[in-house]
Structures are given as C-alpha cells and as structure tokens.
Amino acid sequence: MSKATILMFDSGVGGLSVFHDIKAKLPRVNCTYIFDNQAYPYGELAQDELISRTCRYVSQFVALYDIDLVVIACNTASTVVLPALRQLLSIPVVGVVPAIKPASQRAHIGVGLIATPATITRQYTHQLIKSFATDTDVHLLGSTALVDMAENKLRNIPVDLKELAGILEPLNGNIDVAVLGCTHFPLLKEEITQVMGDKVVLVDSGEAIARRVEFLLGDAVGDENPKYNIYCTSEPESKARLQASLTKIGFSSLKIHPLLDV
Ligand code: DGL
Question: How far is the CA of 21 from the centre of ligand 1 (A)?
C-alpha cells in the first residue's frame, strides 16, 4: 500500500469533527489540516471573499505539498466553492454539505437544519431541501453563537447549556431529527442532546465523507506512521489551550501560514 495525504480545510476547528470520522475509517492516512481563522466566521463572510480565500489558500497548499485529495470540511464554503475549486485543481475535491436526505428519510415529525447564517440562505441548501425533503417540514436555524461555542469547547471553555437551550428553543417540539449542517456542531453533540433530549436524532455528514474519501483513495492509505500537521492564517485565540486539544487528537504544533497574495 502506498502513502496518501489529504488536505482538510475549514474556517476553524469544525473540520476536526470530519477528521475524527476519516481517521476512524482510514487510520493510516496523512492529514494536513488548514483553517482560515483570519476570516472566521465564514458564516458571516461575503460569498465572493469566501470563494476567493478558499481557492487561494487551498491551491497554495496543494502547490506546496504533496496532496492527494482535498476535503472542504466546511458546509458554508462547500455550498458555494466546489465548482471553482475543482476547476483549479487536478486532484479530487470532496465537499461537506448538510445531510438533508438521510435526515428526512428518518423524520416523522420534522427536520431541523442547524447551520451557519450563510448556509441556511444558500441556493444549494434550498435545492437540497426541494429535492430530498419533499414530504418533510424543514425548520431552518442559523447561528454563529453555536460556532463560537464549539471553538471555545476546544479551548476548554465549558458550554453554557442555558445559552445553548435558548438558541435551540425555536426547534422545540417541531422536530425529531436535527441536521448538524456546520462541521463545528458535531463537536457539541453531547450538549445538544442534553438540551434537546435523546428523542431528537442528530445527523451529520462525517461518516459519509469518510466513506467517500476511502473510495477515492483506494489502496493509497498505508502510512505506518501517519502525520497530522495543522496550519492557520493568523495568530489563534487562546493558542496554548487550543494546542492542548490538538495534541490530544494527534496533531503537531500549530503553525501560522498566512494567506499569500498571488
Ligand atoms: N465549520 C463551518 C461550516 O461547516 C463554518 C463555521 C463558520 O466559520 O461560520 O459551515
């Protein structure tokens, strides 16, 4: 078996939830994880800027390192950036989009799509709902505060359950399945279940993405001693606490690699 390196991209630590699922399926794949914290949160960034930053940052890394496959581990970016990025690169690009289809297949009462403010307005998202949730009510909830909570949790700052309950309140009683349509949210699964109750099933795209990556890489995933490198675009908040969590997951020390002008 030969070696393979995947490049994972997000605005912050959210993509680590997808990394978790990929690592479970492909424990011998190398990973370079990059996040554009300088422009965080992506859920509030102008679409043109998001597309241009993602394309520039990802293609810079692909040109610098030996990358076999890219995972855009961010729903907010994936819903708009994939066509442009696929035009730029000659390696496979896997995107993460809200798991509307499996969620609506499981729902009896209704589906809640919990995502960033940008993702819930995207044409791509509304097309997914139109195509795959024909007989199901889908309630949309966009929140950046939830994204911040996940960032804080990785910095060892506990989640305020009262605040979380307040954010999720509009979904109460209306849904039995919640789509975690932002890669940050699976990091808050336990807390979301504590607040919504275990009768609400939480669905995310992580496992499906891991299966797709496995399929695309084929046999090329055999590093005995895989390396997990991590970079960001600017000095991160509470770096030492964040590093402690990253080290636990197996990542090397976080390095700043600014977005270069082209
Ligand atoms: N993790 C991202 C997503 O899946 C974006 C969060 C943000 O920066 O707003 O949508």
Answer: 17
